[in-house]
Design a protein that fits this description.
The complex is a heterodimer of chains A (about 280) and B (about 325). By secondary structure, chain A is mostly helical. Chain A folds into two domains: about 45 residues; about 230 residues, Orthogonal Bundle (MetI-like fold), CATH 1.10.3720.10. Chain A is built from ten helices and no strands. Chain B is mostly helical and about 325 residues long. Helix content of chain B is about 75%, strand content about 0%. A two-stranded antiparallel sheet of chain B has the order 1-2. In chain B, α2 packs across α12, α3 packs parallel to α6 and α4 packs across α6. Chain B is flat, with a radius of gyration of 25 Å. In chain B, about 50% of the residues are buried. The chains are: A mainly alpha (about 280), B mainly alpha (about 325). Chains A and B meet through α1, α3, α4, α5 and α6 of A and α1, α2, α3, α4 and α5 of B.
Amino acid sequence: MNLRAKAVRAAWSQFMIVVSGVCAGACAAVLAIVVAYVIGKGIKAIDWTFFTKLPTPVGVPGGGVANAIVGSIEIIAMASLAAIPVGVLAGIYLALFGRGKLAALVRFFSDVLTGMPSIAIGMFAYALVVIPTGHFSAVSASVALAVIMLPIVVRTTEEAVRLVPTMIREGALALGIPAWKATLLVTVPVARPGIVTGALLAVARVAGESAPLLFTAFGSQFWSRGVGQPTAALPLVIFTYANSPYADWQQIAWGCAFVLVVLVFALNLTARLAFSSRVAAN
Amino acid sequence: MSQESVELARATPAPAAPPVRARTSPTGDRIFSFALFFASYVVLAVVAGLFIVLLQRSWPAIQAIGLRAFSNVWSPNDGQFGVLSFIYGTIVSSFVALLVAGPVGIGAALFLAELAPRKLAAPVAMLIELLAAVPSIVYGLWGLYALAPFVRTYVGPALQHALGFLPIFQGPIYGVGMLTGGLILAIMVVPTVAAISRDVFEAVPRDQREGMLALGATKWEMMTKAVLPYARSGVIGALVLGLGRALGEAMAVVLVIGNKPQIVASLFAPGYTMASVLANEFSEATGKVYISMLIEIGLLLFLVSLVVNVAARLLVWSASGRGAR
């Protein structure tokens, strides 16, 4: 009797372990299905003109999304220029000096900011930049993306700098090096792999963001005429073309999705594989 | 030493501070510590700025519409700005998402943290993290062309066949609709739930597990009776964080939910959410009140997410001991 109860419990345990394994497997399977679908549909759209030509009107073959690729790069580059230095400095502050109330607040609100809807952040950039300047622009899009990147950079930098042994810094200080030089020239270089990982993850996160670009970059069929003008971006092309009834436009949307997925995965894998091992080695 | 550098960083901005400073290069240190403080305040300023700017721009609508915003009719051309159907759609689609993603995510986390051999756990965990990295617009595109037809031909009829007596599974199945929106959100929320639950499980002390096993529990009993109760607040935090992600998601939902402002019981019917109405209508909105009203929806979304995220972070922090350091 007792033995049978035990056998039942053991069997139930085994069964539930399999169920939980199926849960994990299902998540991985969904990823595989989505990625396979995007690759299957998208690869057909990829050719030389896709990367080099401007969009064409419906029915005119030979269109590409060169302007959107350049626009995306432009917007992400400006956002990175703003968010990465500020985020790294704030991360250093949290890791080395962050014990008071200010640090707790910064830590808490950067985590909260990570969970903010990107569309609300886009709206913020719209209200802050687009309304006063009077036009949609690449700059306003960069403001939105920078806000999204900032907390990611802050928290990963903090983690990375915290891993640096204090002795290294103490050694530098003991030699009479001023604190700022000890931080920037001794501590930060040791933490660099981790900081780069964080920056790459932040770029990967915003590279595919479309919601904040809707009312900031706005999109365009032409080459960007400057950072103060409406600018095309890859995620926006997907949104515009996905809803269109024309097969060749939908095809381009799949092509853009393919490019984005490849880009984002490449960034993620580089960040995780290449740098995590070096952080561990340090 | 690090104590001294703390003093240093704190003391430098105040000129009257006692002379505990380093003996070399006070100017460099002063500039550096100013830069550090400035950068930290930027984070706080951004959060405050989000609130202030959104409130300021939605003020015209708050004044013009007031509490009538919480009515049911959304018809901007007639000056009717009731957001109730968006709130309803946001809640229902997020609820469907959590209903699917919650058990699957927690199950996956238990498997990865406790049961899987290490060699299997690491790659599977990375795949699940990559699931979170796929851009939301790509999920939307896939949802529109692959998931929506799948729901129309297989999932919907099957649910109707089995549970058709429930009002939520009645009516015509279009493919795009609340259910499809919820399922897409579930896919996007699962990595959040799984990754954070896994962190929380891994923070459960070993002796809790060993004690349970020593009492003769099976592995599954150990997990449900020792690990899960210990990690409860963290798991709830993970779910709430997932909820936050679902509430604010715009681009994936806007392509698959049907974008129709209505409150109906059927999950097969089209709906609308707060985030998707912003994505869909903002660029074509005309008139001061209309635009301002949409910004007010953005403000509402910000406030809801703020509450949800604050609650979630407090739960997760208390469970995993993060943030305390």
